[in-house]
Amino acid sequence: MAEVVAVLDFGSQYTQVIARRLRECEVYSKVLPFSTSAEVLKAEGVKGVILSGGPSSVFAENAPKPDSEIFNLGVPVLGICYGIQLLGTLLGGKVEHSNEREYGKGTLEITSDSPLFEGIKKTIQVWNSHGDKLTELPTGFSPIAMTENSKFAAIENSERKFFGLQFHPEVFHTEQGTDIIRNFVFSICGCSGDWTMESYIESSIAAIRETVGDKRVILGLSGGVDSSVAAKLIHDAIGPQLTCVFVDNGLLRKNEREAVKKLYGDHFQINLVVCDSEELFLTRLEGVTDPEKKRKIIGNTFIDVFESEVEKIGEVEFLAQGTIYPDIIESVPIDGNPASLIKSHHNVGGLPERMKLKILEPLNQLFKDEVRLLGKSLGLPDSVVWRQPFPGPGLAVRVLGAITKDILIVLREADAILLEEMKKADLYYKVWQSFAVFLPVRTVGVMGDERTYDNVIALRIVESVDAMTADWARLDHELLGKISNRIINEVKGVNRVVLDISSKPPSTIEWE
Ligand code: XMP
Fold it and tell me: Is the Cβ–Cβ distance between 233 and 410 less than 8 Å?
């Protein structure tokens, strides 16, 4: 088992970033609820504990507090932001409520030779975001750095190896922040940096085997990165005890179903059930034009199909899902946060509750790029690991208005040409997404001597880092011309191609 440092989550938007930084140091980090007991931490064999920041004030009525026994575990503790206020209130110091939040950049002056600041410049830019302020040191602590506003911006109790930082070392804007975290985990906690993908695979496989025993597991395989990596990892652990179900909802891209069958069924020899459910989905979608209605129908129909498949398989104990760490964070509904909305479409809501199966989520501590790395280490091809995102409702949200089989055929062909040209131009992996959209309008054209009155295809090609914002990709005009020509010449029923040049926001990536 890899050495682990626990990050107790007090609700900061940066908690996941702390975990991220630790992983970058090749130290396995586990984000746990703030209330996790000292006993559990002991059982985990943690080498250190980090108390994250959080939006609360320690003076609030229900201010989250850790189990006080964590201070008796004999392992180093680092309190960040809200974490330092906790050290102040729980270990005999004094914190004062301040109505003025110190937010943004500040200058930190290091005033002592603490091992936490070894190799750090004497003055660095740091990122602050806090309201309350430590005004009296907790017992046994001394100050090790200050800012203009605070003489206790960083504190230590060298005997007990407890440290507190009022600023956020984990965020990009703090200079040498990762070095500070590195000092904490290596020099102070004594970690050796043994967390590698290989060790992760080894321990995950052992954990999956132990959890599952001789029971059977079912997984809904979409062909996307997350479910594919989960499938391969679980298959490596328990082989034929895993059955993957791939639902062909009739809304897939060209050749998608065949590719999934070939890779997972034939090549990896995973038990794979392919449900041919095109008729069912398309019948239920008949005449439906509202995007959210489409999504609901598709989500519910998926559950119906999946459930009846599980019944056929018989005794199944676990439902595996490719949930990744950001899914868990982002699915916390926050008013006005578009991320929570996107995610509400993402994972098929209600499935686990309805099926009364135990949940197996072997990727739920990993970030997206770690999942890709894991996929690579497990031998998945680049075409899976670096695949562009494809929405759960598939082509349904790329056919504007009512969906018919004929329209889907047109869209599929146009989309395949676009993707083929993107790959040929070595751009497929460089953009975030590139796809075709079928517009519910017809326009006049001329082909040969004939007047045509046909469909319009829009090209949506965007660059993005996380899909929260996006911009249209400035592609070479020759390439765009070629894609347009090929679509109009090769796809029957299309006589016009247009390019979407809107950014997100205010537009979205998908058209529905
Ligand atoms: P938008 O259109 O909101 O899309 O800018 C952001 C990202 O989310 C994907 N997307 C979805 N994914 N189910 C999904 O699984 C959906 O209903 C859905 N809607 C949008 C979209 O492809 C883009 O990557």
Answer: no
